[in-house]
Design a protein that fits this description.
Layout: H1 8-14, E1 21-23, H2 36-43, E2 50-56, E3 59-64, H3 69-73, E4 80-84, H4 92-95, E5 109-117, E6 132-148, E7 171-175, E8 180-183, E9 187-205, H5 210-224, H6 247-260, H7 264-275, H8 293-301, E10 304-308, E11 314-318, E12 324-328, E13 331-335, H9 337-348, E14 351-352, H10 356-360, H11 362-373, E15 377-381
Antiparallel strand pairs: 1-8, 2-3, 2-4, 4-5, 5-9, 6-7, 6-8, 6-9, 10-14, 10-15, 11-12, 12-13
Cofactor: Fe(2+)
GO molecular function, one term: metal ion binding
Pfam family, one: WHD_ROXA
Length: about 375
């Protein structure tokens, strides 16, 4: 499926991180890609992140998964919402929804959350710190958007949910299957199911905080240090007051710290590994039977292609006119001129048919086999 009535350049210029946008009939022939029973089944799996929000006399209650199947089958008439994260990692048809949004760089895309709800179900007025596209898959949902919020916005007292104490409705729409709403970071919004059988897809984007970036990069720098220079002052002269820390000392100490983190090559490699790190690293996607190079060559020669595992993130940076560093699942791989084009195609294409030259290349095949055995690539029939 492709987006229609949507111009990505116009959207980025006028709406992205600026204001909400509603798009009616956003898809060319919308067909809901997944059955609600499949989504509910995922919520019962140990490795899948899920939440059940129920309305009760005291407000909203939150239960974290994994869910018990009989618990979901016996939900009463009171309003409820089941939220299941990263459904795109487990159902390829849901992963396909991401493709039209790749005008935003891949590393910024987080996952596709699916919410199921009965009449009146919702999570309450809240705001997110990231961009989100809300696609109505089945049934109807009423969406309201409101004021701009930040860390100082008052919240209701709740141990688990960050619900706004005040919600100033500015726009009000009912979305039907195939409709889509974009909500920028910090904009208050509230979605409520209108009738039973409501299914909504939320395509969320990553927005790392400065504190998170600093913490991860500092750890990386410390682990990679081979030398640890110490402060020195061979040109020290007597100062007027022994208790004073002179401005020149402060500048020198700050420069020591900045120099330790200012290597652009080191930062680029860290950034690629950070940006492609797995959302759920504990899930094992490795194949039951590891492949050898000869086994892979045989499969590719028979017309097989390789497909990226939706659970694995791919990216690259150019290090010269003919070479790149490929990043997959938080690890980096040097790719010379012989492999660079293939590495970039693996990042761009969901399914990649390797050329005869790539199949004959020892270094290219070593990389493909390695990624296959790590669960980052799988074999599929070529188109």
């Amino acid at each position: 499926m492709q987006l229609v009535n949507f111009d990505s350049a116009d959207f980025l210029a006028k709406y992205w991180q600026k204001k909400p946008r509603l798009i009616r009939n956003a898809w060319d022939g919308w067909v809901n890609p997944v059955d609600e029973n499949d989504v509910a089944g995922l919520a019962c799996e140990e490795e899948v992140e899920s939440r059940l929000i129920e309305h009760c006399d005291d407000g909203l209650t939150l239960t974290h998964g994994p869910m018990m199947a009989d618990r979901l089958q016996t939900l009463g008439p009171a309003a409820w919402t089941l939220l299941v994260q990263a459904v795109d990692q487990f159902i390829p048809e849901v992963a396909d929804l991401i493709e039209p949004f790749r005008f935003v760089p891949d590393w910024r895309i987080d996952d596709v959350m699916v919410s199921l709800a009965n009449d009146g179900g919702g999570v309450g007025p809240h705001f997110d710190q990231y961009d989100v596209f809300l696609i109505q898959g089945a049934g109807k949902r009423r969406w309201q958007t409101g004021q701009v919020c930040d860390a100082s916005s008052p919240l209701l007292p709740h141990d688990d949910l960050r619900l706004l104490a005040d919600f100033e409705v500015q726009d009000d729409w009912v979305l039907e299957p195939g409709d889509m709403l974009y909500v920028p970071p910090g904009i208050a919004h509230n979605g409520v199911a209108v009738g039973d059988g409501c299914m909504t897809y939320s395509i969320g984007f990553r927005a790392p905080a400065t504190s998170e970036l600093l913490a991860h990069y500092a750890d990386h720098v410390l682990l990679s240090m081979t030398e640890d220079p110490r402060y020195g002052d061979p040109d020290l002269v007597a100062q007027k007051h022994p208790g004073a820390i002179a401005p020149a000392v402060l500048q020198k100490m700050q420069r020591m710290m900045l120099d330790s983190v200012s290597d652009p090559d080191q930062f680029a490699r860290w950034a690629g590994e950070y940006a492609t790190a797995s959302k759920y690293p504990d899930i094992d996607w490795q194949p039951d039977e590891p492949f050898t190079r000869s086994m892979m060559e045989s499969e590719l020669a028979l017309g097989q292609a390789v497909r990226r595992n939706p659970a694995k993130r791919f990216a690259f940076t150019e290090i010269s006119a003919a070479a790149v560093v490929l990043f997959v699942d938080g690890e980096s791989y040097e790719c010379d001129a012989e492999m660079a084009h293939m590495a970039q195609r693996l990042c761009r294409e969901r399914i990649t048919e390797l050329s005869a030259g790539e199949i004959a290349s020892e270094s290219a095949m070593e990389l493909v086999v390695l990624l296959y055995n790590k669960g980052a690539l799988e074999l599929v029939e070529a188109d």
